[in-house]
Amino acid sequence: MEYKEPFGVKLDFESGIIENAKKLVRKLSDMKGYYVDEEAYEKLLKEDPIIYEVYAVEQEEKDGDLNFATTVLYPGKVGSEFFMTKGHYHSKADRAEVYFALKGKGGMLLQTPEGEARWIPMEPGTIVYVPPYWAHRTINTGDEPFIFLALYPADAGHDYGTIKEKGFSKIVVEENGEVVVKDNPKWTE
Amino acid sequence: MEYKEPFGVKLDFESGIIENAKKLVRKLSDMKGYYVDEEAYEKLLKEDPIIYEVYAVEQEEKDGDLNFATTVLYPGKVGSEFFMTKGHYHSKADRAEVYFALKGKGGMLLQTPEGEARWIPMEPGTIVYVPPYWAHRTINTGDEPFIFLALYPADAGHDYGTIKEKGFSKIVVEENGEVVVKDNPKWTE
């Protein structure tokens, strides 16, 4: 029988970079329609800042195998809404995921297919368990990069379409210097 | 449909403890037959030191779900052989695992069912990918607790029996102050 070769790679705690990983960059221009304040979005688009970078080590899509990736989510806001990842369900909806916060400050917004939402604050050392079926998005509520490691089944897949179309039922904004989780005015069930 | 509830838990980087996790303690007396030097084992048994502690957060054994656990593996030797975990294959042999070293110094010994071995050194920041089918054991080669986080499919299961009976084909010992990976004199295929 042929076996895959084990390996060790280095994750740099300061930068979040995993050596030899596949890098993905999401700029503001990749996220049209994701933020509530469209005027603020268009204005910031002139700079088109990087919102987040992902360093992923992935296997073939096979049941029982595992992928892992770090995300470096930059600080900033579009209007009053904090910088965030696109968020996704898993294509195989019953796949779980585990996040481990390493640096910075933020949280995870989760949502069932029916739009029931949860907010879990994250700081270095927080491990978040994402159960099967929940969409999930991470949000930087601090003023430095928010860095975390995620592990997910190799056959989970990403369903971005549902969130792109409908968004989350909640948004996370700054109001009077506070982090506030409130209803998304554009949400329709 | 009923959904499981997402949650966040805190991992303490200094102690390796995960709050509200299930704690498991392995003392030397739980590891009879695992170390090569039986005389040194019997002698140290009078103290019966804790070899390692595990803090696990586990789900039901279900395909696509994920468990995680930290291990605090203490420094020490039985004769010249470094303190180590029991090591195991997965009951569902095609389940992968990912380890993430947080503190201390050590490594992972891996082995195929045919006894082909690998040694991967680990230090804080090292992520080790354990492919399907490989047995794996961690070893503390330093002089402080070696702490790491492991993530594994919820239906992986632990097959300890094969290693208990046959051991690994390699052992990791200290020779003249160096970490040496050498053939296990008791290994039989």
What does this structure look like?
Two copies of one chain form a homodimer. The first copy, chain A, is mostly beta strands and 189 residues long. Chain A has a single domain (22-183), classed as Jelly Rolls (Sandwich), CATH 2.60.120. Chain A is built from two helices and 14 strands. Chain A has helices spanning 38-44, 161-166, and strands at 7-10, 22-27, 50-57, 66-73, 77-78, 81-82, 97-103, 106-111, 117-122, 126-130, 135-140, 146-153, 170-175, 178-183. In chain A, the strands form four sheets. Chain A has a six-stranded antiparallel sheet, with no helix packed on it. In chain A, a hairpin with an 8-residue loop joins β3 (50-57) and β4. At the A-B interface, β1, β7, β9, β10 and β12 of A face β1, β7, β9, β10 and β12 of B. β10 (126-130) of chain A pairs antiparallel with β1 of chain B.
Mean pLDDT value of chain A:
97
How far from one another are the termini of chain A?
A: 50 Å
- Beta-strand level of the residues of chain A, as a percent range? 35-45%
User: How is the biggest beta sheet of chain A arranged?
Assistant: 6 strands, antiparallel
